[in-house]
Design goal:
Elements: E1 2-3, E2 10-11, E3 17-20, E4 26-29, H1 32-40
Antiparallel strand pairs: 1-2, 3-4
């Protein structure tokens, strides 16, 4: 099982999307919400409350 590269959610086998960048980095996404926030919008998952990487200071 892999984890979403943006929200850190565990992906079940056969679900999610694998994205390969031009430099060969492989990213896994659980939903189009995560994919768009990461690739298109360029957001930092540490700053969003709904992600698993959100740090509470």
């Amino acid at each position: 099982m892999s984890k979403c590269s943006f929200c850190n959610k565990t992906l079940e086998p056969g679900t999610g999307t694998m994205y390969v960048s031009k430099v060969g980095k492989i990213l896994y996404f659980c939903s189009s919400k995560c994919r768009k926030n990461s690739i298109k919008l360029g957001r930092n998952p540490v700053k969003l409350k709904w992600t698993g990487f959100y740090n509470k200071e």
